[in-house]
Target: ATP-dependent DNA helicase
Amino acid sequence: MISTNPFLIFQSMTLQSKSKLQNKNVKLPVIEQIFPPNTDEGEFCPTCMSHIRGSKVPTLAVCHRFKYLEQPECLGALNDLEERLVSLRIFGISPHKLTGR
Ligand SMILES: [Zn+2]
Model:
C-alpha cells in the first residue's frame, strides 16, 4: 500500500518509484496498477513489496479499490503509544493460539 495512511507510520516502508521498480524487473502492467494516477512514487510495506517483487499486484492496492477512510479528528491528537493502544492490529506481533493440556 502506498503510505497515505494517516493512522500509521511503518518504519520499514521503502520508497519506490516506477523507474526503480522497472529496474527491478517488475512487469509494467503491475507497476501501472499499483500507483494511483499521476503518481510516480510511493512508500510500500514489506508485505506489498514481496507481492510486487513477484510481479503481483498487492491485495491492498488502489486498483483493488483500497483507500483509507478519512481520519477522525480525535485520532490526530494521539501520541505513538496511544495510537498503538487503540489500533485494531499491532504490526510485527503475531497472536498464537495456546493449546491447553
Ligand atoms: Zn502494504
Notes: The mean pLDDT is 83.
